[in-house]
Automatic annotation (TrEMBL):
Belongs to the bacterial solute-binding protein 3 family. It comes from the Bacteria. Residues 33-255 form the Solute-binding protein family 3/N-terminal domain. The keyword Signal applies. Keywords: Signal, Transport. Residues 1-22 form the signal peptide. InterPro entries: Bact_solute-bind_prot3, Solute-binding_3/MltF_N. Pfam families: SBP_bac_3. CDD domains: PBP2_Cysteine. This is Cysteine ABC transporter substrate-binding protein.
Length: 265
């Protein structure tokens, strides 16, 4: 067997295959479309409405980026993702950009390139009002629901091994598990939990801020510098020309009210 064949076989076995080359800005402009990963089940950030259309805060920003780079909001191709797939979608060139409520962490920054943030969040914990979890200590030996690959998953796995985690791929699965009593509480970004609690008033975000505030930012494949620079410029433009605030007022204010500390400066 040839040496390069052996190396390739070992690399595949170890999961070390290289990323497929991402499209740079010039190629995206030549194709006339930018592929952007968003959630399909995480209102008010990314979801599918009753007409089958993508809606939400991330979706509005995606359309603005498409307009900025390609001249029209119709030049975006939305690709639905789950939290655990966001990095892989970039590595496998399934998408050019991730705008799926992606929290910027040092670990993730080693494998993707984050653009300038557009939102701030912290972790929260939601539980039934008649059995509230108001302190992390109450979770010891109990089951907490999280989504795979989220900051909640990472935070509790690292800092609280005494808590049993039940993990799901999709947000709908995780929240259904909470309703079914498969866990005493659910941990996720606090902004998402506030929105869900408004629609499900028998639940309360009794722990509204856990750990440090973190940034939500777009991400591109590692090393895709031309697209990264362009997205950075777009985000900077949106912060000064009012488009970021307009997206916030359209999608988040109806859910949260005026909480402009959610927006990154």
């Amino acid at each position: 067997m040839k040496l390069n064949t052996i190396i390739t076989t070992v690399a595949i076995a170890l999961g070390l295959t290289a990323s497929l080359q991402a499209k740079d800005l010039a190629q995206i402009k030549e194709d006339g479309v930018i592929r952007i990963a968003v959630f399909g089940d995480k209102p008010p950030f990314g979801y599918i409405d009753s007409n089958g259309k993508n809606q939400g805060f991330d979706v509005e920003i995606a359309k603005d980026i498409a307009t900025d780079l390609l001249g029209s909001p119709d030049k975006v191709e939305f690709v639905l993702t789950e939290a655990a797939n966001r990095v892989e979608f970039l590595r496998s060139d399934k998408v050019d950009l991730v705008l799926a409520n992606f929290t910027q962490t040092p670990q993730r920054a080693e494998v993707v390139d984050f653009a300038s943030p557009y939102m701030n969040v912290a972790l929260g914990v939601i539980s039934p009002k008649d059995a509230p979890i108001t302190d992390v200590a109450q979770l010891k030996g109990k089951t907490l629901l999280v989504n795979k690959g989220t900051t909640a998953d990472t935070y509790f796995s690292k800092n609280h091994p005494e808590i049993k985690l039940l993990k799901y791929d999709q947000n709908t699965e995780t929240f259904d598990a909470l309703k079914d009593g498969r866990g005493v509480a659910l941990a996720h970004d606090n902004a998402l939990l506030w929105a869900w609690a408004k629609e499900n008033p028998t639940y309360d975000v009794a722990i509204s801020s856990l750990g440090e505030k973190e940034n939500i930012a777009p991400a591109v494949q590692k090393g895709n510098q031309t697209l990264l620079d362009a997205v950075n410029q777009s985000i900077a433009n949106f912060k000064t020309n009012g488009k970021l605030k307009a997206a916030y007022e359209k999608t988040l204010v109806p859910v949260y009210g005026e909480k402009e500390d959610l927006l990154a400066k």
